[in-house]
From TrEMBL:
Residues 236-246 have a biased composition (Basic and acidic residues). It comes from the Eukaryota. Keywords: Membrane, Transmembrane, Transmembrane helix. It comes from Entomortierella chlamydospora. This is Transmembrane protein. Residues 230-252 are annotated as: Disordered. The chain crosses the membrane at residues 20-42, 54-75, 96-117, 137-157, 178-199.
Length: 289
């Protein structure tokens, strides 16, 4: 997590961090904090009710924070690949997604109420969630992750979506990568919580903390991959850019020329390109009005 945080923030000034990148950096910080605290608690939670109780609170609060950040990140990417010339809160689908995220606050309350933290006769710490919380959590995770996945599949498959056209290659790459990230998040969360259900809401502290650490770390690695350009695609994009320079562009519309990826875009991250795309689109819509 320290390596990912360093790679993402190297050479970055605080005033240049936009909303999407702020979510990613926050996810790194939360995931690092979870790993660091879990590594300390797992050494002391046997024969120690205070450490055992802190373990379950760590699993609930920090794990829930990481999931909220991931969902906000996926919602931001849905806005990026489906909205053109519209602010977030004027975009109906974005507001719907925020409303769908609201029940997670109630699920956090359920997790706090139905938490389990006790010491066995041999001093072993058992932590977890009772069925009212664990079953609700797994159903919600499956629902929201499936919903967000569908929102990425729809524009990729539709021939009339905003992702189609010769100048939208990078936006399609954003959608494909985020679709994979959404699927991985769905699989990891479902496997983690389903394991808790199989253990009937009680796992040894070591197992629960380790599985949650793996979950949040792999999710952070996935988000890191989603927000970084692939070398293979960059090379092909550079070749296409070179081909465009040697071919006439009269067949492109004025709008496509305006939003077509410039050669300089190859050296920047996907978030920077998308932010510039929306700025250009907003200006185009304003001038046309």
């Amino acid at each position: 997590m320290s390596v990912l945080f360093g790679r993402k923030t190297a050479g970055t000034r605080l005033d240049t961090i936009n909303y999407a990148r702020g979510l990613v950096v926050s996810l790194y910080i939360v995931s690092w904090s979870f790993s660091f605290i879990a590594a300390m608690l797992v050494q002391t939670n046997d024969f120690n009710i205070v450490s055992c109780t802190m373990s379950v609170y760590t699993c609930i609060i920090l794990y829930a924070c990481s999931k909220i950040l991931i969902y906000l990140f996926l919602m931001e990417k849905v806005y990026v690949v489906t909205a053109v010339g519209t602010t977030r809160f004027n975009f109906t689908l974005y507001r719907i997604n925020l409303i769908l995220l609201a029940p997670y606050l109630g699920i956090i309350c359920l997790m706090l109420v139905y938490r389990v933290s006790n010491l066995q006769g041999n001093g072993e710490c058992k932590i977890g969630l009772l069925p009212p919380a664990s079953v609700t959590l797994i159903l919600y995770d499956v629902f929201i992750s499936s919903w967000l996945t569908i929102l990425f599949i729809r524009p990729l498959m539709s021939p009339t979506s905003q992702l189609q056209g010769p100048s939208k290659g990078k936006l399609r790459d954003v959608a494909r990568r985020t679709l994979m990230g959404s699927l991985i998040a769905l699989v990891l969360s479902t496997a983690n919580v389903f394991t808790l259900v199989l253990f009937r809401g009680q796992e040894r502290g070591l197992i629960c903390l380790a599985s949650c650490t793996v979950d949040v770390t792999l999710n952070a690695i996935t988000v890191h991959w989603v927000t970084n350009r692939g070398s293979g695609r960059s090379s092909s994009a550079e070749r296409r850019s070179g081909e465009r320079r040697t071919q006439p562009t009269s067949h492109l519309t004025t709008f496509e020329k305006r939003v077509a990826p410039l050669e300089s875009h190859i050296s920047v991250t996907v978030e920077s390109y998308v932010e510039q795309f929306h700025q250009q689109t907003s200006v185009g819509c304003t001038s046309s009005q």
